[in-house]
Amino acid sequence: MRDPAGVPDEAAAFSERLTWPSFKRMPHIMGALFVALACIYALSPYLALWSLSSALRSHDTITLSQHIDWSALSTNLKAEAIDALIGPPPAADDLPDFGSSFASNAVSHAIDTRLTPELLMTMASQMVDTSRTAPVSSLRQLYARLSAHFVSPLRFEAGLVTAPGQRPTIVHMKFEQWHWKITGFDIPKAI
After folding, report:
1. Which of 171, 191, 169, 166 lies closest to 182, judged by CA?
2. Which of 109, 128, 119, 113 is nearest to 171 (CA)?
3. pLDDT at position 13, please?
4. Low-confidence winner among 71-80, 93-102, 157-166 (lowest mean pLDDT)
5. Cα separation of 5 and 75, whole Å?
6. Is 93 exposed, middle or buried (0-12, 13-18, 19+ CB in 10 A)?
7. How far is CA 100 from the centre of its chain?
8. Reduced to 3 states, what is the DSSP secondary structure of residue 48?
9. At what angle do helices 26-58 and 117-127 cross, to 10 degrees?
10. Around 41, how many Cα atoms within 13 Å sit in the side-chain half-sphere?
């Protein structure tokens, strides 16, 4: 049987099923979409850490360099190195000694010229040396050694205890250009 427009009934019934959802379902669909996006965003730093971990295990410097904000990381490493060598910066009204000024300039220059993905890979592999760290055999041991949390909506921190009784090495990450990038490290000081 045909309707007055000449379209068979089967085709008319099929076209009615292809229409957009009714406005009654729209809030449910938007809510489900929002929850799905929030879950993807909440899992994204953990997926970035997993990608970084696999890049470190396979010595993939290209993947490693894609997950690093080089300017922020070099600034952070300069501050860490200068603080470790010289100590805290002098007060605002004090002039630094010539030796400390020379040392801070030398450290800054060395980091600017020598910081490469290969050097970072070597440094990371030395920090997490598999011969001196016991392998994680259970989820409870991993939970005791690893901590990860959001600091703000766009910042994330992950800490890993590399040796028993030592403070964790903390990796700072920031959400930039639609993925997570490493912006700095807090390396525990030798006791």
Report:
1. 171
2. 128
3. 57
4. 93-102
5. 72
6. exposed
7. 33
8. helix
9. 80
10. 15
d(CA 187, CA 178): 27
User: Is the per-residue pLDDT at 130 higher than 50?
Assistant: no
At residue 181, the 3 state secondary structure works out as strand
Q: Which two tokens stand for residue 47?
A: 């997926």
pTM (global) more than 0.70: no
Q: What does the alpha-carbon distance between residue 122 and residue 117 come to, in Å, rounded to a whole number?
A: 9
Q: What is the pLDDT of residue 138?
A: 64
Taking each helix axis as running N to C, give the angle between helix 98-114 and helix 70-85, from 0 to 180 degrees, rounded to the nearest 10: 150
Mean pLDDT of 36-65: 90
Residue 6 DSSP symbol:
S
Structure tokens at 166: 């030592």
DSSP readout, 113-172? HH--HHHHHHHHHHHT-TTTSPPP-SHHHHHHHEEEEEEETTEEEEEE--STTSPPEEEE
Tokens for 138?
A: 């259970």
Give the percent of the chain with pLDDT over 90: 20
Mean pLDDT of 5-10: 59
- Comparing CA positions, the residue from 173, 126, 167, 129 lying closest to residue 145 is 167
